[in-house]
Amino acid sequence: MLSLRRSLLSQTTKRKTKTKTKLKTNKNASRKQKIIAKSHQLEDNYNEEEEEGFNLKSSAPSHSHGVQPLGNLYFNPGSINSRNTGLGNLQILSDELVLEILGLLEGTQLGVLATVSKSFYVFTSHEPLWRNLVLDKVEGGFSYNRSWKITYVSTFYPSFNVAKSTRIPGLRVRDFYSDYLFQSWLCANLEMKPEWLERDNIIRKRGISVEDFIMNFEEPNKPVLLEGCMDNWDALEKWDRDYLLNLCGDVQFSVGPVKMRLEEYFRYSDQVKEERPLYLFDPKFAEKIPTLGSEYEVPVYFREDLFSVLGNERPDYRWIILGPAGSGSSFHIDPNSTSAWNAVIRGSKKWILFPPDVVPPGVHPSPDGAEVACPVSIMEWFMNFYGSTKNWEKRPIECICKAGEVMFVPNGWWHLVINLEESIAITQNYVSRRNLLNVLDFLKKPNASELVSGTRDRTNLYEKFKNVIEASFPGTIDELSLKAEEKKAQQKKVSFWDTVTDSKVGAFKFSF
């Protein structure tokens, strides 16, 4: 939470407005105000404040329990943080640790604990606690109902009169200050800043040949945004919410760790306001609904896919992706060192990509890159890390990919994607001759979890894939390995000029 606290710690000034909240710097603020976070004075109405840098969505509600950022405590020097008094001896624990402990409890236990004090009431009402309970325990789908807490109760205690209980307004607690609890609400209700969207430095191409694509982008491993290569898709014309609901509204799709009927997912996405919205990401959509598989085709640039030699034993490789504004994928590298393409059918997506040798700020990969820890949400990453990349020598590649456009993501590139509106897309991972050696090299090494567990899933895949490639395309691996060695030697080869000059001092050197 230090990064959030730095984000919140700056000068503020209150100003009434009829529409939205904006963070604004007060250059004439007192010394005390200068140590205050870019925070809200939210005691009465969150939507009546304006602060510099961040806008709340016009539909943003006030925090249901009156939680304020810790910096606001400085505005009220006589106040005592009711968070501490209500926790008793547990007040020495960080908010994160308190919630970790509460995450071990069942729903009924959280309900009982909520009656102990106002502070426990606020903590036990933290929506991610109830979201985890629902997702961990639900079988066969669920119907989202206004909040995760209400959804839990209505799902597992259907006889309880939820409608009657929700007419009672939630308890608002005065003088409760917590950056950790506040940030979840803030990130869920924040608008994307214009400056986060304006940078567009990707190369765009329309109508290039396959040879040009290979030579200029796939071979040198460079991203490119391709236009016009999905114009003949039926999906581009047909796929919208109404069409999908009529075609497969009662079909279950993979949504995070659970399965949901499509109509229930849309019900969820229409209501939810949370920091990390669930994302529909299904690898078996074409098998479930063959019509969907027939209404798009792989763009001509990506049709060589050597993983196809494995047939039904190949790893998951294609997905339909659907999500509301604010949903998306935090920084990651595509699996098995594959390359990928992502075609937007409806909506628009903000992309940020870093080359393989540049780890994005706030991201902590395992040594082999197979596992990635990104402790902050997408919105919090923008708040706390995006600005710092402006001065980097290797700045990220960025763009907004709109409906009808295809993003090529080369193997090993870090990428973050956030939906700017409700979006529908298709993505596929593939292996061509250009990255075959990278894939084999990746699969050959067991990851950390395999070393601990003693399993050989990755190395088994390596042996199977390598054997089938050698049988299907004899000599290909040896040929590609030889070319890679020649290329590496060429890059190391000393030029004639280097043999007669001393690069350290810029003077000639002679050898007799």
Automatic annotation (TrEMBL):
It comes from the Eukaryota. One of its GO terms (cellular component) is nucleus. Gene3D superfamilies: 1.20.1280.50, Cupin. One of its GO terms (molecular function) is cis-regulatory region sequence-specific DNA binding. Its cofactor is Fe(2+). Residues 1-63 are annotated as: Disordered. It is found in: Nucleus. Residues 287-447 form the JmjC domain. Keywords: Iron, Metal-binding, Nucleus, Oxidoreductase. InterPro entries: Cupin_8, F-box-like_dom_sf, F-box_dom, JmjC_dom, JMJD6_ArgDemeth/LysHydrox. Residues 13-37 have a biased composition (Basic residues). Residues 1-12 have a biased composition (Low complexity). Pfam families: Cupin_8, F-box-like. Belongs to the JARID1 histone demethylase family. This is JmjC domain-containing protein. It comes from Corchorus olitorius.
